């Protein structure tokens, strides 16, 4: 009996995972508003009724997809942060830029983020608060890094740490957007971001780095 | 008879304009995929049949909205470019940054652009080619400006004119996106962009400028 409950649970979790994965694809292609529950069920290979059993409303799917993205981002950062190095702000920045080169593995996620972040800019969108909070959180995190660099005399120029944080978020989002639109996906997001930031944090410059 | 034809034409043009305006609002709120023809007709205050008479498919509406945006951008640039000053690249950049401060007048357009640019990042979207071309055009235009500044020794740092062009587009799009998400729309897009660019084009710096 217990084994069958566990088996049932595992099966249910696998179905949920398949749905979320299918849903991410559907949202990336058609947006949250454009994707229909029927399309998502079809992509997941289950019936419409089966889908509604797991996720009664499309908003529930959106929450699941965004939660998964946050989870992956957290894991992503944790994977690339080694204990000893994590404390230095320049090393963290360096790590952030380096991870971008792996975005090809996450091309679907980059596309999903761009589509949802654009769509949810409308204040009535159910993911609006999620993205507003995410951008504010990242800006706060980056502001602290740049502030520490400024205090240690390692920040060049007149831009404030807060403005540089907003600019860094803008560069990342805006370069990824252009990358999605570049015919061969040949826009070098990582190099351009590193070059731009190293004008303010010289030690990030490729020639001065490893 | 002739007068009635002209009157009919003017009336038809006015209806088209009302539809496009209603459609811009609907796209900004729900995205291209999310906005329904019924919703657009309701916002325009006409019947569904009346809407289909002017725009048989939603794609036709998208084309009309994007054409209008391009037209406004062109007019916008022309309005802010006075004959004698236009030739100097720094003046053109200065003008571009200054016009951003008026974006409040165009808040709906900024939102519409963000929503559509995000949504159309999916390659199957009917506006994908439009945005791909627009970004490539702006990058080419800016690359020429930065190249001229570099040739005249007025560009600081090691970033290439092409990379700086992509970064400028990224900053504009990414800061506007965060502006749409900032609770009081209090993110200062213009100041941050000017500060960032003046690290590379020192004469753009507020203290050195007018």
UniProtKB/TrEMBL annotation, chains A, B:
Family matches, as Gene3D superfamilies: Tetracycline Repressor, domain 2
Protein name (Swiss-Prot/TrEMBL): TetR/AcrR family transcriptional regulator
PANTHER family: HTH-TYPE TRANSCRIPTIONAL REGULATOR YJDC (PTHR47506:SF1), TRANSCRIPTIONAL REGULATORY PROTEIN (PTHR47506)
DNA-binding region, residue range(s): 36-55
Family matches, as InterPro entries: BetI_C, Homeodomain-like_sf, HTH_TetR, Tet_transcr_reg_TetR-rel_C_sf
Domain HTH tetR-type: residue ranges: 13-73
GO function terms (MF aspect): DNA binding
Lineage: Bacteria, Bacillati, Actinomycetota, Actinomycetes, Micrococcales
């Amino acid at each position: 009996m217990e084994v069958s409950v566990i088996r049932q649970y595992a099966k249910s979790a696998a179905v949920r995972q398949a749905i979320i994965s299918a849903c991410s694809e559907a949202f990336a292609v058609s947006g949250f508003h454009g994707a229909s529950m029927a399309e998502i069920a079809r992509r997941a290979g289950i019936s419409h009724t089966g889908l509604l059993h797991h996720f009664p409303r499309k908003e529930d799917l959106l929450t699941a997809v965004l939660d998964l993205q946050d989870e992956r981002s957290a894991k992503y950062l944790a994977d690339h942060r080694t204990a000893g190095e994590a404390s230095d702000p320049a090393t963290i920045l360096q790590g952030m830029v380096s991870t971008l080169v792996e975005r090809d593995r996450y091309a679907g996620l980059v596309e999903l983020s761009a589509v949802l972040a654009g769509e949810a800019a409308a204040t009535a969108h159910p993911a609006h608060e999620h993205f507003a909070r995410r951008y504010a959180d990242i800006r706060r995190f980056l502001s602290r890094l740049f502030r520490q660099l400024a205090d240690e005399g390692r920040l060049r120029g007149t831009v404030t740490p807060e403005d540089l944080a907003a600019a860094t978020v803008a560069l990342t989002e805006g370069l990824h957007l252009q990358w999605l639109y570049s015919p061969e996906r040949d826009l070098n997001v990582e190099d351009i971001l590193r070059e731009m930031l190293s004008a303010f944090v010289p030690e990030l410059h490729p020639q001065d780095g490893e």
